[in-house]
Amino acid sequence: MNPRLPYVLLVGAAVIIFILSCMLLSRGRRSPSCESQPHIVEKTGSKSQSLVFADLTPEELAQVVRYLQGNLGVQLVDASRAKPSDNCIASVDVQVPTKAEVLQFLDGGGARPPREALAVLYFGNQPDPNVTEYVVGPLPMPVYHRDITVQKYGGKVPYHRRPMLGSEYEQVGAFIETVAFAAAPTFLEEVFEYDGTNMAFQTTAPHGFRSGDRKSWFIVFQNVSGFFVHPVGLEVLVDHSSLDISRWAVSRVFYNGQYYRDMVELESAYMQGRISVEKVRKAPRDGDFSSMKPRAPASALFPLQYEPQGPRYSVRSNHVLFQAWSFAFGMSVNTGLRLFDIRHKGERVAYEISVQEALSVYGSNCPGGMSTRYMDGSFGIGRYTSPLVRGVDCPYLATYLDVHYLAHSQVSRVSKNALCIFEQNLGSPLRRHYSNLQSLYYGGLVNSALVVRSIATVGNYDYVWDFIFYQNGAIEGKVQATGYTSSSFLHGDGLRYGNRVWEHTLGTIRTHSINYKVDLDVGGVKNSLVAHDMAFEMTRAPWSLEQQIERPRLTKKVLDTEDQAAFRLQSKMPRYVYFAANSKNKWGHQRGYRIQITSFAGDHVPEASSMERAISWARYQLAVTRRKEEEPTSTSIYNQNDPWTPTVAFADFINNETITNEDLVAWITAGFLHIPHSEDIPNTVTVGNSVGFLLRPYNYYDLDPSIYSHDGVFFTSKQDFTACEINPLACLPKTASCLPNFPPFTYDGFQNM
C-alpha cells in the first residue's frame, strides 16, 4: 500500500466536507426581508376632512355618558345591569352631520360641522315609559342635548318597541331556570338529565302577534359547542311584557309536537304517562358532530399572500387611499360597516354606501322556528362585529383595526382587530388579450383589488361584509354567510320545512335578505335614472331583401318617477340601470354608474301579512328615491319588536315623486334562499352563499381607467420579454424574492366578553 494514500484520502475528505458545508450554508441563507418602497398615490381627499365621518373615540363616548348622567335630571342605571323598570343609556354612536353641511365643508370651504353624538335612552322609571333619542354635542366637551325623537319618527317611541338589552336576556334566562323549570323538575331530570347547566336558550323575534306584545319563544338546546343544531324538543313562551320582573310568566310550553298551558301542566302530563317522550342522546361538551375542531391533522401549509414591497395603500385614522381611490369608513353600532365620500381619480362617485339591514324569515313546524323573523340591525350588526383571525378571516398581513362601541353598557368596549383592509391579487386578469392574428402580442392587467372587511356574528350566523375597489373604477358590495344553521326539533311533518341533518335535528328553511343604501353622486349631486336593455327587431337584409335578419337593438328609457324606479323582488328589471350625470363623456354619452345586483333571493313575505310593512324594503330588488334627510335609513331598530306598527316603513318612501335631475339614493336588496342540508353540518360554508351588487362605470370615462394602472403588462413577439424594462414580470425573481415579516399570531376575541 502506498504510504501517501492515507494523506490523500484525508485531504480529499476535507475538501468534500468544505464543499458540502458551503452548500449547506448557502442553502440555509435567508432571503432578505421585504421592505416597503415609496409608491405613487394620487392625492384624492384629505385625512383631516374624513374625520367628519369618524366613529366616536372611547374618550368621546365617556364624555357623552358623563354629560347625560349629569344633565338629564334622572338617575341612570348602567344598562349592563338595568331592569326593565330602570332608566339607562342603551347606546351611543356618532351623529353624522347632514349631507348639505358636509358637502359645504368638503367642497365649499365651509366650516367643519360640529361633532355630535346620537344617544338612545330607555326611560322605564317614569309614568310614561318610552325610548328617547338625543343629539349631544359639541364633542369633545358637550354642553347641549336635543330630543330629536318626535322630529325623527313623527311621535314618541313606545317603550315596548325597545330592543332587548343583554341584561333583559339574562333576566329571562334566570326566570326560565329558577321559576319556569322549577315547576317541572322530574320531567327535566328524567328526560334531559337537567342539572342546571346543561341547557342553552335561543330567543326568537318578533315577540308576539300585535303591538304591545313582549312574549318570546325560547328554544331549548343542549349546552354544548355548536348548540344551535342540538335541539331537545322543548320550547317555552315567556311573557316578559311587565316592567316588574316578578310578574313575568310562562304563557305556553311546547314539547315534541304538543302544546301545554305551562310547565306545571307539562310535568303533570309526564307524571301521568301522557307524553310521548323522545330521548335525545346526550352530546359531549365539544358537541360531537357540531364541533368545528378539524377532523384531520395539519399538513402542508396553505398558500399565503404577501406584498414584496409593502402595502400599496395607506390607512390614516378613518381615511383610505389606494391607487386612484379614496374614501372614509366607519362602523355603525346598529348597521355595521359603512363608507363615505368615495372618490375615484379625485372625483366623488358616491357620498355613502352602507349596510341597512339583514333579515331572515324562518319556516318550521315548531313554534319558535315558524315565528322567527330576525332583523339583525335591532340586535346590532356593528355591536356584534367580531375580532378577526389573521390568515383565515383576512390575509395574515392585512391591516387590522380596532372597533370601539358603546351599547348595553355605560362603558365603551373594544373589539380588537375587528376590521381589516388589504389588497388582494384575485388570481385572474382584470383584462387581457393574446393576439395571434396580424400582429403578435400579449397585453394584460392583474386583477388586484382593495378589500375592506368586517365579520359580524349575530347569534348563530356569521356575515362576512366586504366592500371591494377595483382598478377599473368599479365598487363591489358583497356579503357571505357562514356560521351555524338554526334548527328545530324534528317531529311530525317537519320535512315540509327543511331537511333532516342529524338524528333529531331539522335544518329549517329560511330566506335571507340584505339591504344596502347607495347614495351615488355621479358627476355631481344631481342625477337621473336611466334604463338600457335590448330587444330583437326583424329586418330584411339590405343586400338580400328576400332574407330576414333578427338583430338585437338597444332600448333606452328615462325612469322619471319613484314608482317607475321601484322594481319588485321577482320582477323583470332592465339589465342596465344607471345613475346618469348632467355631463357627457368625449363620445357624447351621459356619464353614468351602473347598478348590477347579484342575488338569488327567496320570496318576500306576503304583503297581506300584518308585519310586512316593517320589512317593506325587501319587496324591492332595487328602489331609487329622492334623497331626504328625514329618510336616512330603510328601517329602524324599533321595527323588530313592533313590526305591526313600524316606526319606519320603507314603502312610504315611494310616493311617485319625480327623480329627474335630483339627488338620488338607490336602495338595493340582495338575498338568498337557504334550505339547510347535511353539508351544513357542522356549519355553513361561504361558497355559493354570497350576494351583493356592483357599481360599474358606464360611459363615465372616455376609456377604461385601468389602462393607466402601473401593473399593466405588454410585450410583442419582437421584444425581449425576459427584460425587466419590457416586462415587469421578468423582474419577479429580483423584486419579489424576499421574506415577508409575519408578526406573531395573537387573538383577543375572548377578552371583554
From TrEMBL:
2',4',5'-topaquinone modification, residue list: Y461
TM segment ranges: 7-26
Gene this chain is encoded by: Aoc3
PANTHER family: COPPER AMINE OXIDASE, RETINA-SPECIFIC COPPER AMINE OXIDASE
InterPro entries: Cu_Am_Ox_Cu-bd, Cu_Am_ox_TPQ-bd, Cu_amine_oxidase, Cu_amine_oxidase_C, Cu_amine_oxidase_C_sf, Cu_amine_oxidase_N-reg, Cu_amine_oxidase_N2, Cu_amine_oxidase_N3
Entry GO CC: plasma membrane
Gene Ontology molecular functions: copper ion binding; primary methylamine oxidase activity; quinone binding
Keywords: Copper, Membrane, Metal-binding, Oxidoreductase, TPQ, Transmembrane, Transmembrane helix
Active site (record annotation): D376 (proton acceptor), Y461 (schiff-base intermediate with substrate)
Domain named Copper amine oxidase N3-terminal: residues: 162-257
Protein name according to UniProt: Amine oxidase
EC number, as in UniProt: 1.4.3.-
Keyword Metal-binding appears in the UniProt entry: yes
Co-factor binding comment: Contains 1 topaquinone per subunit.
Similarity-based family: Belongs to the copper/topaquinone oxidase family.
GO biological process: amine metabolic process
Species, as recorded: Dromas ardeola
Modification after translation: Topaquinone (TPQ) is generated by copper-dependent autoxidation of a specific tyrosyl residue.
Cofactor needs: Cu cation
Enzyme class: oxidoreductase
Copper amine oxidase N2-terminal domain segment(s): 63-143
Top-rank taxon, per record: Eukaryota
Ranges where the Copper amine oxidase catalytic domain occurs: 305-707
